[in-house]
Backbone:
């Protein structure tokens, strides 16, 4: 296992939703920020990786397990650890803890290094990952299997233009943005009584400025399946009913 890194964090108003819960897109964004802070502390910042090797980090998969969401103004602790890597993939864990040290949610993530010029996946170099003290493994962890777009029955369809505000520092759509697009397709009345308990996200191809996002959603019970641009990004959300009151 690798070196652990922690930061305390207080959930601000602008990262809270209509139910005073921290937005999932904000959770993912803050997780990336914390991992970036660890990288900088270890001398392997995004700038260092870019300047030395012409590469950048990209997340290609998330598995999010939610016990409960952090709430507005709650002070939490975010812990991360680069757990293992092989020749093409790096695996990192995040834990969001309450003030008592209890786990609220966990994120398992898969990362790759991409060439800034060719936009293709590059091999993981020991010089880049050695400071994290993560385990070098030979096997590739099995990814989640998503429902294919052609298997969607009576899908809900939406189109979103890719505007400047959706882009991140690498010039493609910010990965947290896809979850917002997916969740926005779910009926608000349903959202009043249900919360996500497990979320799988996979990014297969990057989408750039000026393109369009063609989103499709279908349901199987309380599981919503989301497909963007014929599989460039796939999301599966498991929803759980709850009875907590909401601040309306």
Residues:
């Amino acid at each position: 296992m690798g070196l652990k890194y922690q930061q305390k964090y207080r959930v601000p108003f602008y990262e809270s939703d209509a139910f005073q819960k921290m937005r999932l897109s904000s959770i993912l964004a803050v997780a990336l920020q914390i991992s970036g802070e660890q990288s900088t502390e270890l001398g392997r910042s995004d700038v260092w990786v870019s300047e030395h090797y012409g590469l950048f980090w990209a997340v290609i998969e998330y598995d999010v397990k939610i016990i409960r969401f952090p709430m507005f103004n709650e002070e939490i602790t975010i812990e991360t650890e680069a757990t293992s890597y092989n020749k093409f993939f790096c695996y990192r864990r995040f834990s969001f803890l309450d003030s008592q040290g209890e786990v609220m949610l966990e994120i398992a993530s898969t990362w790759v290094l991409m060439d800034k010029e060719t936009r293709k996946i590059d091999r993981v170099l020991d010089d880049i990952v050695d400071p994290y003290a993560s385990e070098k493994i030979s096997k590739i962890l099995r990814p989640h299997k998503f429902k294919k777009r052609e298997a969607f029955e009576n899908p809900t369809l939406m189109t979103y233009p890719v505007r400047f505000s959706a882009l991140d520092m690498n010039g493609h759509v910010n990965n947290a943005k896809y979850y917002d697009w997916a969740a926005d397709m779910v009926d608000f009345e349903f959202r009043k009584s249900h919360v996500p308990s497990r979320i799988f996200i996979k990014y297969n191809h990057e989408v750039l400025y000026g393109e369009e996002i063609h989103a499709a959603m279908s349901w199987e019970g309380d599981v919503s399946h989301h497909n963007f641009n014929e599989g460039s990004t796939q999301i599966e959300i498991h929803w759980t009913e709850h009875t907590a009151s909401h601040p309306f």
Summary: The longest helix spans residues 24-41. The radius of gyration is 18 Å. The chain has a mean pLDDT of 93. The longest strand covers residues 103-115.
